[in-house]
Specification:
The protein is of the alpha+beta class. It is 24% helix and 23% strand. The chain is built from 9 helices and 20 strands.
Length: 517
């Protein structure tokens, strides 16, 4: 090696020296350590690299003979740059992901690797950037050839994960653009990193369908290339701005991400399409009570945002020391009212969560509006474009607690007594024979808090004549602010004048207690 050389300390490339051989920039990778082990690694790498010829894989240009004290190989044109050097250049990141995918599929073909083994290679390889800014995927450690692994995701997800982990937050999906609890990172840097994370998670596919991955990445890079004249051939494209990346994501219909916040926001405060901002106060967290309302882009006709409604419910509770939950189905009534059937066995205790929401069908339409109109609107109100907040989803999240007040009574246990399998149970009601109690398909986690299991389960004997039939109630909710949720014994909702409270059930009569949590 002639000229200036530097030692690489990363992964498969560890110990490599960068320099010149016969006037050509090259990399010499030495195999140090115990002779037998070093020769084994050396022979394995030479055999692999002699059979691969791909621009994104190491190019073998020479290797030592048997008499060399320390075996080595020579690789062509690889710089000592890590992929992190391109952190903010997500145009290049998309290109790197595409090239890594191509190289991996070539590896698989040449080395006859299974899908699982190919993912082992990709996930345990180390990566470098060559002089032409192409990614070069090194070989994984030799021991990878001897392991067996299983995954529930495909190759594209593995490659996507590699590039997500290059970010300072390791690609974790953020809920807000800025986390006030992070005292080590400035708000500006947090905002950039979190926006980049959201965008790259959208742009880099994780589907198992390789053809879809290729199509999306090529379409994305083709969209970027369209920004340049046909006769323009820049030696190196400049890093993209967040605005350009977002435009690219919108163009391929993958930008469905939005920020999420539910703390400190009162119900019915916002509607889909509301736009405004929260004044910045140094060293203070965002206070949504100080939100400055500028208008509603939907009702004022400033943006075409398709809005849909969604309602869902879930019931959960403890059974046999296991927390179980199931979806609840609602029935719609006039006046935007939703009814929910709740079946409560004796001694049962449930939590019911009901969500009413309205949301933008295509979130990228909202991002597109902010890109088009945000700069001028921000200038008009003396704020920065990134300070604007456009509401794309709003609604209510209501929680109810319901508890059956009945106590199941049993005969005192008799010494040395055996369980009677012919003993009538539940006062003649054979509810115990089915898994779960309910009506019209409403299951209840197989709730059997009292005895009577077939096959000799609980030996206790029930006292006959008890009211052990499940109680059926109806919960009525609505997304409208004027409606107050309530429980009823009737499946029919009775409209009431504004301000009049619905009647409450008497726990002493219905033997059940329900409340809004």
């Amino acid at each position: 090696m002639r000229g200036k050389s530097r030692t690489i300390k990363d992964g498969w490339w560890a110990g490599a020296l960068e320099g010149e051989v016969n006037g050509q920039k090259s990399l010499m990778l030495r195999y140090d350590g115990e002779r037998k082990s070093a020769m084994k690694r050396f022979v394995r790498d030479v055999k692999v690299l002699q059979n691969v010829y791909h621009p994104n894989l190491p190019q073998l240009v020479g290797y030592s003979n048997d008499e060399t004290p320390t075996p080595f190989i020579l690789l062509a044109n690889v710089q000592t740059r890590l992929p992190q050097a391109l952190l903010l250049d997500w145009l290049k990141k998309a290109s790197l992901a595409r090239d890594t995918l191509d190289a991996a599929l070539y590896y698989q073909q040449q080395l006859n690797l299974s899908d699982s083994k190919l993912q082992d290679y990709v996930e345990h390889a180390s990566y470098r950037i060559d002089m032409e800014q192409a990614v070069i995927m090194g070989l994984p450690p030799p021991e990878i050839d001897n392991i067996v692994s299983w995954r529930n995701f495909g190759l594209a997800h593995s490659i996507r994960d590699i590039y997500l982990k290059l970010l300072p937050n390791r690609g974790m999906m953020p809920k807000q653009p800025v986390d006030a609890r992070d005292e080590n990172t400035s708000a500006e840097m947090q905002r950039k990193i979190n926006h980049l994370t959201v965008l790259v998670r959208a742009i880099l596919p994780s589907t198992d369908e390789i053809s879809t991955v290729h199509e999306r990445l090529h379409k994305l890079l083709g969209t970027i290339d369209d920004d340049f004249d046909e006769e323009e051939e820049p030696l190196e494209l400049p890093p993209m701005s967040l605005r350009q990346i977002r435009r690219a994501a919108i163009s391929i219909n993958v930008h469905q991400a939005s920020w999420f916040e539910n703390n400190g926001i009162t119900p019915h405060k916002f509607s889909v399409g509301d736009i405004g901002y929260i004044p910045k106060v140094e060293d203070e967290m965002s206070d949504w009570s100080k939100f400055v309302f500028l208008g509603n882009v939907v009702t004022e006709g400033l943006a075409k945002l398709e809005v849909s409604s969604a309602t869902n419910g879930r019931q959960s509770g403890w059974q046999d020391r296991i927390h179980q939950s199931e979806d609840l189905a609602s029935f719609e009534l006039p006046g935007s009212i939703h009814g929910w059937t709740v079946v409560v066995p004796p001694e049962a205790e449930y939590t019911i969560d009901i969500v009413h929401a309205k949301e933008t069908v295509r979130v990228h339409d909202a991002w597109g509006y902010l890109l088009d109109a945000g700069k001028e609107m921000a200038r008009k109100h003396g704020i920065q474009p990134e300070d604007l907040i456009l509401i794309t989803r709003a609604g209510t999240d209501q929680r109810f607690k319901i508890r059956d007040l009945r106590q199941v009574r049993y005969w005192p246990a008799q010494p040395n007594s055996m369980p009677s399998f012919n003993q009538p149970q539940f006062g003649g009601h054979n509810f115990h024979q089915g898994r779960g109690m309910g009506f019209a398909g409403h299951g209840h986690f197989g709730h059997q808090p009292f005895g009577g299991h077939n096959g000799g389960g609980d030996p206790r004997r029930l006292i006959q004549g008890q009211d052990l039939a499940p109680k059926v109630f109806y919960l009525f909710t609505s997304a409208e602010k004027e409606h107050e949720p309530y429980f009823s014994l009737s499946p029919m909702h009775v409209p009431r004048p504004v301000g009049e409270k619905p009647p409450e059930l008497n726990p002493n009569q219905v033997r059940c207690f329900a409340l809004v949590d």
